[in-house]
Amino acid sequence: MAYLHDSLAHLELFEGIVPWMYLDTHGFVTVGVGERLATAERAQSLAFQDGKGQPATPDVILAEYRRVIALPHGKLAGFYRSPASPTLPHPDIDALLMNHLTFFDSQLGRHLPNYAGFPDPVKLGLLDMVFNLGVTGLLHGYPVFLDHVRSQDWANAAIHCHRTGPSHTRNDWTRDQFLAAATLAATASAIAVSA
To answer: Could you report the per-residue pLDDT of 126-173, keeping only the tens digit for each?
Structure first.
């Protein structure tokens, strides 16, 4: 399932990687690629390290969690870092993100007939959308888009995949995934007709 690894790379590019705890735009303590830490215990369950690459103690992680949650939200991620902030190693961030992608991939397979057979560009576009919107947001907020996806009309799916919030670059990239699938389908159809 190479598309999951491709999706991980694109999400890290679009979402950014922040190895220290920060507050997201809603005021939730977060780390890595949008990994929400609902409790201090959740933060303590992760393999944070100190500045020397040694495991951070539970007390250090708790103190950092409390320090960050007390700060105002709505700032850039760098605002929340102190010289003593423990950080999460990149492989651990990747593992957390891959867990989310695997979950989202299974949810898409559950809700979209024929998902397993969709071209990889379609899966990449759908994973970007579901990561950004959540399962409920995608399934209930984009009915016209999903009708086109279910009928494998990739060209019209490309027209209706635009989201409010993500950058133009990200929306264009997602649209381009569906357009690439439309091109693949048209090419396959032309080959079948000429054969």
So the answer is: 999 999 999 999 999 999 999 999 999 999 999 999 999 899 999 999
Rounded to an integer, what distance in angstroms lies between the CA atom of residue 142 and that of residue 160? 8
The answer to whether position 3 is within a domain reads no
**Amino acid letter, 2:** A
Quote the CA–CA distance of 164 and 194 in Å, as a whole number.
42
Q: In terms of domains, do 82 and 125 share one? A: no
Structural element, H or E, at residue 185: helix 168-194
Amino acid at residue number 72: P
Q: Looking at the structure, tell me whether residues 121 and 189 fall in a common domain.
A: yes
Same-domain pairing of 79 and 125: no
* Burial letters 88-108, b for 16+ CB under 10 A, else e: beeebbbebbeebbeebbebb
- Model pTM score: 0.90
Torsion on CA atoms 86, 89, 90, 91, rounded to nearest 10: -150
Angle 27-74-126 from CA coordinates, rounded to 5°: 75
**Same domain assignment for residues 87 and 122:** no
How many residues comprise the chain? 195
Q: Residue 140: which domain range?
A: 112-194
Residue at a domain's end among 92, 124, 141: 92
CA 47, 34, 168: angle at the middle one, nearest 5? 150
